[in-house]
Amino acid sequence: MSAKVPNPIDAYVGSRVRMRRLMLGMSQERLAEQIGVTFQQVQKYEKGTNRIGASRLQAIAGVLAVPVAFFFQQDNSQPLSTEGLGAISGLEDLSDFLTSKEGLSLNKAFMKINDPTVRQSVLMLIKSLANASEPSVVHAPPAAEAPFGLRN
């Protein structure tokens, strides 16, 4: 029997619930208590395993102090659509990053930088650090160029 794959929109809405909850520093237990479910149910909502009904989503929005539309926005100008959402590879990684403590902290700090030049510099720094952390292939020198003491 194959595992049921969450609907991409349910997963997206759940990731937005998680992101907002973490932004507020709220635990799953506290959110669950506020909306009248178990923390395991909140986990399922956040993973997209279980769909969030309209009345429950309204309650979550109230507790998290955001409009319901917050859970469906991809950016400020476009409502959420299924077009291309399921086909984006790495969406899970992005969601995991944005809802991690480090990712959330990095994102908050980055958004406080108003100067576009400084933002670009930070981005270049992060890219160079990421490239530097990738393992590089070490090639052994040809036998004729082997250092003294390593020749046969």
UniProtKB/TrEMBL annotation:
**Which PROSITE patterns did the record assign?**
HTH_CROC1
Q: Locate the HTH cro/C1-type domain: which residues?
A: 17-71
Q: What Gene Ontology terms describe what this protein does at the molecular function level?
A: DNA binding
| CDD domains xref list | HTH_XRE
InterPro entries named in the record: Cro/C1-type_HTH, Lambda_DNA-bd_dom_sf
Where does the source fall among the domains of life? Answer: Bacteria
Q: Which protein are we looking at?
A: Transcriptional regulator with XRE-family HTH domain
